[in-house]
Amino acid sequence: MTVIKTDAPDTMTETLSLANISKSYSGVAALTDVSVHIRPGEVHAILGENGAGKSTLMNVATGTTQPDSGSIVFEGQAVHSLDPKLATTLGIAIVHQHPAVLPDMTVLENLQVALPASVFRDGGAHEVAQRLIDEAGLRVHLHDRVETLTLAEKHLLEIVKAFAVRPKLLVLDEPTAPLGADAVDALFERVRGVVAAGTAVIYITHRMAEVRELADRVTVLRDGRLRGTSAVADISDDELLALIIGRKLDSTFPPKHDADVDQPANFVLEDLTGPGFATVSASARRGDIIGIAGVVGNGQSELLRALAGLESFSGQVAVEGAALSSGNLLHRAAYMPADRHAEGLMMSLSVRENAAVSALSRFKRGFLIGRDAEVAAVHDSLQSLSVKAPSMEAQVAALSGGNQQKVVISRALLSDPVILVADEPTQGVDIGARAEIYTILRAASRDGIPVVVASSDAKELEGLCDQVLVMSRGHVVATLKGDEVTEERIVSAAVTSTAEVVAVAAAQRKTASSRFRRFILGDYTPTVLLLCVMVALAAYIVPENDRYLSAFNITNLLTAATALGFIALGQNIALLTGGIDLSVGPLAGFLVVIASFFVNDGKSMGTVLLGLAIMLAVAAFVGLVNGCLIRFGKFTPIAATLATYIGLGGFAFLLRSTQDGYISQSFQSAVNYSLGAVPVAFIVFLVIVIGLEFALRRRPWGWKLRAVGSNEESARRIGIKVSRTVVLAYVASSLFVFLGALMLMGQYGIGDPSQGSAYTLTSITAVVLGGTSLLGGRGTFVGTLAGAVLLQQVLNATGFLGLGSTAQYYFQGLLILVAAVVYTLARSRRTKRTLVT
């Protein structure tokens, strides 16, 4: 990370100069010798088809991607090894096309982890954050979890983060794609404001109307190469199109259907009512495309989800005279969601797998899938849609946005649907790919498949659709057909409506933002449930055996819970990053075996301290090995920690083949010392848990830990050093195992090579009971404490109730099952939010 002064006089007045930038991926050139110069106080538009290299170039400009060659000069200084953190320091901010937000964290936490502390110096974090989202028109609660936000709200949150740092260079990558007209106007007004103050703005878009309205200069990329730069006033739309697509585009929209007035309707909606919309009626003939219009958030997406069978409804949906229920539609409708990354594609799977997944029944050969039939069908479908991909086995994440959208269409058509429902089908897609998608939708309609398209672009609906239903506040306020389908009439109907809000939609909005609902969906609900279970269990046992609440039993229970709790804290840290640490149990046992050679009666204090130091060093080293295997050796967390699990078990038996080496009695007494019925060690454990919980919620360490587990790519984009965070997390995990080993030394008092292994699964159980997600990003340390105590309480209770040791495993299994069910029910909800604007 080096900044060097440059002598180049022509760059001194430029905010950013990218010179001769080249970048390749696996030998495929994404950028070739591209040079762009951005001046202060201007909006510089970057145009090009999907895959032209626009986003790659901006990733280079913001430090997310390192170029293979070329130079970056910022405000007259050559910058080497630019990364997101340095970019932020220099004053570079970006609004990503796919928002770099962290779904498991709240709106406030997303702002705190992404923005420098200096942003919050003008007041309390809550007050500053509230002001920032109000300025952007983002109407959500600061403690709403980001996964509950709509796609448009996530984009607004991304915009909030970018403007908050008052950047010298602002990069906007398709910022208006999911936004309604009012939000777009507000964004443009803010852009003009920062430009007037001297900020340089790079604006990436596929909409030339926006270029005309906002930009001063424009640069066009095609196939990773620079095709030209011009003042916007000096170049025509036709000239821009020729540069963008390299060919003449005869027409963006295919010819509309010439309907036979005597032809019966093949698609009928009658009084359709569901969450967020009411009494929707329409009919269409074969070959017609129905458009759904309106200001974003007025029931359009909810209506489309109902037509796809994803929402319940009343009323009737009929195709070719046959009524279809919600269950029928779920299995027979094809749905193209607005957010293709979150709902439309499985980004880690191949192009073939994504295209074929909805049509696998077509390829069945007995109990198996016929691979040849699958490959042939997918190949023909992708070829007919002109999908550009390295191969069918390439990850779909490697494709451009337009080609990803074609894969979604391919899957829809391969499923042989009775209806095709498309929500914002051309969002983030270049003009050439748009024309191809329009042609595909028109062809499907001509083949007799009813096509319903929702779009926030009235011009798109005018060119594509044969009739348009304009929605406002959940109601259809206008049905436009034939020559009535014009941009002016669509917009006019939407903005002049006086329809009342659908009651259910308003109730959902209120419920979504209520404090009680946020708590129920929050991280502390499992902890409260565990406390209730503990109280109920104690209340059941006490009448059966009054010794249950004796000081002796409470001390034993809390001491055992402390040993498990320290190990579980380490496990929790690993799980929060999205990993897992299977080595915690054997590591605890191995550390006790090491101690059995040093912490003995008759040994000097120096020897005892040396033994403890060796234990601490070994724990840290094991954590470092685990972290490095995962981040740099590219092992999965399970594979890496399973390897150390086996290795530590073997080393323990090499040191001691049988139980031997008694731990000093004075050391055991110190570990087991109690104040009344409460062990001092448990008090220490409780204090550490409170400190960790505070750090998890209020300090950068906790935000970064959860950010990596929530969405690693987003965490990297906002400047978090992901590898360092993960490696240090595994080191911390092993250090907590060291504390657990000290407790085991006091409890067992002997070096046992087989001791500790059982703590691996028990620690995972305690953490999961406490509500930590196995997928990472979500959990609490308080819940881990409660889970550890409950597990020991269950084991303790079996003795008092006279049950055998087998019952312990039944109870543990039952607890895990209940925790999994409750956790799943709490998380498995769809966001049903209707925005009233």
How would you sum up this structure, described in words?
The chain has 837 residues and is α/β, with parallel strands linked by helices. The strands form seven sheets. It has a six-stranded mixed beta sheet with strand order 7-8-9-4-10-11, sandwiched between helices. Strands 17-20-21-14-22-23 form a six-stranded mixed beta sheet, sandwiched between helices. Strand 8 (169-173), helix 6 and strand 9 form a beta-alpha-beta unit. Helix 22 (584-595) packs across helix 30 (759-769) and helix 23 (605-631) packs antiparallel against helix 24 (637-655). Residues 1-12, 499-513 and 828-837 have low confidence and may be disordered.
Radius of gyration: 31 Å
Shape: globular
Determine the N-to-C terminus distance.
Answer: 46 Å
> Would you tell me the structural class of the helices and strands?
alpha/beta
Strand order across the largest sheet: 7-8-9-4-10-11
Q: Give start-end ranges of low-pLDDT stretches.
A: 1-12, 499-513, 828-837
The tally of domains stands at 3
Mean pLDDT value: 84
The DSSP helix count reads 32
Note the main sheet.
6 strands, mixed
Number of strand segments: 27
| CATH architecture level-2 label of the largest domain | Orthogonal Bundle
The CATH class of the largest domain, by name, is Mainly Alpha
CATH structural fold name of the largest domain: ABC transporter involved in vitamin B12 uptake, BtuC
Helix content: 40-55%
- Proportion of beta-strand residues: 15-25%
